[in-house]
Amino acid sequence: MSRQSPIRVVRWSGLSIGSVAVAVALTILLAAGPLFLGANAIDKLTTLFIYVILAVTWNALAGYGGLVSIGQQAFFGLGAYGAVRLADAGVSVYPALVLAAVLVGLIAWPISVFMLRLKAGEFAIGMWVVAALAHLLVNLDNLVRGETGTSLIALNAYAAETRHALTYWTALGAMVGLIGILFALLRSPLGAAIQAIRDNEDAAASVGVRVMRTKQIIFVLAAFGVALAGALWLATTITFQPRTYFSVQWTAYMIFMVLVGGLGTFEGPILGAILFFAIEAWFGATGVWYLVGLGAAALLFALFLPKGLWGWVDQRLGLRLLPVGRWLKIDETAPMGTSKSTESGST
Amino acid sequence: MIWVNQIIQGVLLGGYYALIACGLSFMFSVMGIINIAHGSFAILAAFGLFLLADQWGVSPFLGLIIVVPAMAAIGWALQRAVLERSSRAGILVPILSTFGLSIVIDNLLFEFFGADTRSLAPYIGSFSYDSWSLSDDIEIGQLSALIFATAVILLGGLQLFLSRTELGRAIRATAEDADTVGLIGVNARLVNATAAAIAMATVGLAGAALAMRATFDPYAGAPQLIFAFEAAVIGGAGSLWGTLIGGIVLGVAQNIGAQINPQGFFIAGHGIFLVILFARLFWGGAGAAFLNSLRRSA
Fold first, then answer.
1. ipTM (interface pTM)
2. pLDDT > 70 in chain B, percent
3. Would you say residue B253 lies in a domain?
4. Cβ contacts of residue A109 below 8 Å, gap of 6+?
């Protein structure tokens, strides 16, 4: 077939097959982590996994769905609250974390029907209102006791070491699972629709992409992911104080990670989460100035490098480690071909 | 009688919401940008007045002579340094850049002023609690009445300015099509910077109103943004008189909610916003007609 046309569409490169293999090997290595890592390292890595989940799902929403939400803390808080409620009702703790996220995903569907009709900035602040309302309603629950909060006491059934390892594995599984789902989704026909919407919503609609349905799928998946992150955060900190979980700061972190890493790129948010994790470890203790720095970085990246660090790397080197798009290769030996091979990254 | 009082107080509170929503609505209708840092700028203005009163004993009303022009200058700079570049980069970028800016402002205020809750009430004497009694149960605060009147005059003035003056017409024309107005000799950059300066000057007034009638702290910007947004959307985004109606609907709903349940104030506010949004989206025609009839009767 390739003899007829000098142009081939390629979905993998040697480098990207190699990097996926490295990712798989790294996952296996991380899965064995509790066998050789200390308690402190296990806790730190669990936090990193949660950050990656937050960054990847916010990027799915904003970078691919074109939906900038400032209210993702709604799902973060509801995920944790759901886990508290389910554990209180007698569900075993670790299944409760996942079940809570599934329930939040189910709630997100009707919310999406209605919020997705809002455009751009209206959607952004509209989601913030949803988060504020969710926070107030959770405060009404007697189990939570307002801002006093409660704890996931069922976790005390486990010895500290077992608990840390179980939370670590759940977080690792959640992170790898979500990245895997997104990778598969973006490489599927639906992924082509998603990327078409990202590039131009009206044009996508005109060639038959079901814009609303596609955005709903991303919205619900993002809500599920953030809820899972919230439930996992609860498993690491044990205490549930609504004010902490429904804080807009979570969305600020997501925006920082995605903008710095690379909005609308697949690898960027993972890079952003690792950078954020490192920055927090080094500067987190400086408190207010650290937050000023995060805000300023988000502002400057939005203004001067809107595709983030990974977008910059991609533009310079055409580097794709986890390719969700297609390369167009022109065969140089073909009679009508030009003398050089062209690689055009059409993510 | 207690209900009548709640409704009257709600209407007066709505005057404040209309005032804070004015700049947000104006900027959205003229430049198509929702400034996420809107509430943070109102708090910045409030701290400006606080600093003048606390350090140099300048009365907050006199302080407005300094703070309002300063806010206008900030608006001009904001448009030139941030909004212009952001809106060229796409519809989503202004949301991200102004959100980043709001985090910077909030935390810088925290760094300089600390976590203490402040108010300008101590600097305006008895005016913060003086009131006219209508009956045993109903009192109208003089400050609330002044804020309400300011909102009405400001919204009416802006409406007249947009429809009657040369600059107002240039602003409306630029909002319609920034490229085409260039052909007829309007400098779109200048017009947009002016509009941003006007919007931010109204934010200065709103910040003053907030600081006199209530308390504020460095992180109080986010709820102000949400209230402003709710009032603007309830009233129909981009319509200045609608903004007044939106503010009143929000204020009345909150006060009625507070009467029903101690937690009801905020829940009822967010609730009425979502209900009206929902109604408009699904029964758009009828809902819009209802709101238009409200707007006409106002």
1. 0.85
2. 94
3. no
4. A216, A220
